[in-house]
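Hey, does this match?
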Amino acid sequence: MRLRHIEVFHAVYENGSISGAARMLNVSQPSVSKVLRHAEDQLGYELFQRTKGRLVATPQAHELFSEVAEVYTSLSKLSRTAHNIGNRKGGHLRIAVLPAIGLAVAPRAIARLCEGNAEITSEITTLHSREMDRFLHERACDVAVGFRLNSNAGIAQTELGRPRLVLVTPHDAFGPPDQPVAIEDLHEVNFIGVRDSGPLADAFVNELNRYEVAPREVVTSHTYYAALALVREGMGITVADEYTVSALGTPDLSYYQLVPNVQAPIYAATLENSPNADLADRFIENLRAALTELSGPNTPEQAATP
């Protein structure tokens, strides 16, 4: 099938009529009919049956449409990308960040990057740390922000900070929130687990093992924001990184510092000799400032209070 065949077939299938497809494509009905007949001639089978003045998709058309829909989506994406490239005048930055960084920190850094230069454009993707290296090497992003990025040749890394884990509980579950909570106090307490949620969660599990502490894991969550929601529903307590707490924390929960403190370094990684190096460096500096601002004061509950 040629691209024009795909476009017309997709429009007829979606609209169920020649007239609807013609309106969608902004062409004449005879033009749509001609292209559709040519597509059927090329394929050697009917795509639609004409029944009582209506077009009914054949089984072959249903099977073909799943593949055509993917191609049509890719063509639409290509068209948008080509249009956007032509409109970029102030530079374009592609950013990949951890979900926790994407909640508030990265949006603040992007907004500051664009202050005074409305022609800068950007796109942001949330990824887990293990996906960052591939995105960088495939040049799918200009800046990646995550934990434990591999030290590969051609990639420059900058440490941005060491976020800590915060204990999140129902209101005042461990007393006044300005008092730290020892990790031993979590033994056999109903807990929303965060295993496999990244290096920070791994560091927490290591501390549990080191102190021989075994919370009663009633639910396992792979994201901190889902874990917070489960605490709010009364399922137990959990831990979350301080950036998630700063963005999503609410006064109905309490937030405690853990003893010992659980931290892990977070990095910004860029490709060396990138054509967007200057823009990437400016974004990283704005990101560093936003991380400092949103890391919160000494008491996590204050950080969560609007």
Q: What stands out?
A: The longest strand covers residues 155-161. The two ends are 57 Å apart (CA to CA). Residues 297-306 have pLDDT under 50 and may be disordered. DSSP finds twelve helices and 13 strands in the chain.
